[in-house]
Structures are given as C-alpha cells and as structure tokens.
Amino acid sequence: MEIKTVVMQEEGEFRVNGCMTVPDNMDNRHRVMIQEWIDAGNIPSPWVGPTPIETWVEDMARSDTELLPRAMEDMLDGMPDKSGVAQITLDRLQAKKDLRATKP
Is 61 left (phi over 0), alpha (psi -120 to 50) or beta? Predict the structure, then answer.
C-alpha cells in the first residue's frame, strides 16, 4: 500500500488515502506502515470536525428516514385540510419543520 495522505480522526484512528480507517494499534500492520511514513518525515493532517451546516445537512438527511420522508412532508404541507391525518404524522411534520428552522 502506498500512503499518500493520513488524517487523524476524532476517535484516535487514522484515515489513509481517504478510503481506509486504521486503528491506533501498533499490532496492526497498516498502523506500522503509517508510523514508517511518519518517521520518513511526513505529517498526518489533524482531524477537523464537521461545520455546523454539514451537521445540519446530516441531521436533515437522517430525519428523512427516521421522521418523515421529504416527499411526504411536501404532500402534507400542500394539504389545506389535515383533519384526517394521524396526530403522530403531524407531530413528525412539525419536528421536521422545527429542525429545518435551525439551519445555521
């Protein structure tokens, strides 16, 4: 394996070449390779957490599967009379609207 980039992860692991996660355990042969790469004068990039907008986008995507799919949200929003809609569905719709309103 040729190491081009190493990024330190929040959990203490390493992300190699943007596609492989390696635990910080010197019993792991890939971790040994990373150490050799470091010893050769290379420096791993520090971990940079997600921006507020990236976190919000992830939350919105998760809400599409856990709360209410976006298409259903749009249909419900377009209904002038929601009297026949179950309360749990209306609660989920409101939760999505509340989440959408928190956009950074």
Answer: alpha
- Number of CB atoms found within 10 A of residue 67's CB: 18
3-state helix, strand, coil in the chain (%, to 5): 45, 10, 45
- Per run of 10 residues, the mean pLDDT along the chain (length 104 residues) is 93 94 96 97 93 93 90 92 94 93 90
- The distance from CA 19 to its chain's CA centroid, rounded to whole angstroms, is 15
pTM value > 0.90: no
Give bridge partners of residue 16 from the DSSP assignment.
6, 20
What one-letter code names the amino acid at 54?
E
